[in-house]
Write a structure and sequence with these properties.
The structure holds two protein chains of two kinds.
Chain A lengths: L1 E5 L2 H8 L4 E7 L2 H4 L5 H17 L5 E7 L5 H4 L11 E4 L3 H10 L5 E3 L1 E11 L2 E6 L15 H4 L16 E2 L2 E5 L1 H12 L32
Parallel strand pairs in A: 2-3, 2-4, 4-5
Antiparallel strand pairs in A: 1-6, 6-7, 8-9
Chain B lengths: L5 H7 L4 E6 L7 H11 L5 E4 L11 H10 L4 E6 L5 H13 L4 E5 L20 H13 L16 E6 L9 H11 L3 E6 L3 H13 L7 E6 L5 H10 L7 H8 L3 H20 L6 E4 L8 H7 L10
Parallel strand pairs in B: 1-2, 1-8, 2-3, 3-4, 4-5, 5-6, 6-7, 7-8
Helix pairs in contact in B: 6-7, 8-9, 9-10, 10-11
Classes of the chains: A alpha/beta, B alpha/beta.
Amino acid sequence: MITAERKPMEEIIASVRPYNRILLVGCNECVTVCAAGGRKEVGILSSALQMAFMQEGKTLDIKELTLERQCDPEYVEELVTVIDQADAVLSMACGCGVQEVARRYKDKPVYPALNTKFMGASERQGVWAERCQGCGDCILGLTGGICPVARCSKRLLNGPCGGSTAGKCEISQDVDCVWQLIWDRMKALGIENRYEEVMMAKDWRSSRDGGPRKIIREDLV
Amino acid sequence: MKTESVLEKVFNSGQLAVTSECGPPRGALPEKVIEKAKMLAGYVDGINVTDNQTAMVRMSSLAACILIKQIGLDPIFQMVTRDRNRLAMQSDIIGAYSHGINTMLCLSGDHPHFGDHPMAANVYDLDSVQLVQTVRNMRDNGKFQGGDDILNPPKMFIGAAANPFADPFELRVARLAKKINAGVDFIQTQCIYNMAKFEKWMKGVCDRGLDKKVHIMPGITPMKSAGMARYMKNKVPGMDVPDEIVKRMAGVPKEKQAAEGIKIAVEQIQRLKDVQGVHGFHIMAIEWEQKVPEIVEKAGLYPRPVIE
């Protein structure tokens, strides 16, 4: 899923300070799962903003709404009935949702309340970690199901580098050396002899380097 | 002979080769490069020029290599894949070769996290193994990485690094084999202090016959002080400094520690000379280049062979 974290309160307050009426819009998908921008977080942010404005001697009229999916035009359309009652939209979706709202309601300023982080998985309660960079040409079949593009600090395809120590990356004790993980997994699968095959230079066109990407499914269009 | 590299010629003569290194200055000070290089003249077969080492901005390796080449010495052009993509790397390789630079060292480079621009974008379009492969393809097939022909392809003698002390240890021989598969000609290792572990790695290398396919140069770094020994032991990633080295440095009075450091370095070279597969030494005297001639002489590696 896409993970996100709420921006610092000061930054959010500064973005909505010029307005009297805002529409605070959450999303029921990924950001709900990672507890950043679902219905619950919309309620918490709404109260926090109202308190902050009160302390400044002002009032802020906040309309709260959480859409099923903010990256989907079908659901973003639901805002049409309330959009005129707000001077601006504060979105608690990932960057995709923020942009979908901005695209649909062209004359309404939209501000992000979250910083979108990465595509990741939940490691344990309250902890999410990066797993995929969406390079567009998956190599997990060659690396024991563990991705060096997303999880090696240097995205080395022929790691580990000389900084791998006791299973950890040289940049931090909190980061696993992904090449240690890959090596352990290759051994567990009995395919460690494949390690010595050089992984060829990657064609990054399928990644962000080839320009903004699009999927067109003719069978569905 | 694959190239005109002096280093390759020394290896081919069957004699132990010696290289050292020179870190370019953090400013436009060409005289500093020349001063450091001149200290090494006559005592080494090649001078490594580091490429933004420890992820700190310095004069470019290419520019410093050209300065060294212009005074008639033999630079080894270090290139890290951290700072530029395959277009920039290949154009610099052609540029270097156009200035008569014929020896390279291909590295991934320290992560920007360690340097003075931790906010910088991390390129890593290629990794060090793929860079070796790219340089070999340029030399042997006359092709760019993208597949087009190169006009007058650069003939580089290709080096890479190895750290026998990084984890997982059991993978370290396989990783060397991978670099050999990619086309590396010589290897300069991480600084060696744990002799026994290095010898164990070399045994693994020789057991597979890899010593016949690549020239291995153990890295030797003289300690200036007991403080430096402790720092290297505790702070430098991937470094293995046994307690006895730290104790030995700390066991002599402060004013004699530098001399003790040189003595240890010389002893290390003497011991490793006899290890099968060791074809030379890479002496990295960090900001202490003036001591390299003394180490080379005391280790019995002077005079250097005269290569026609």
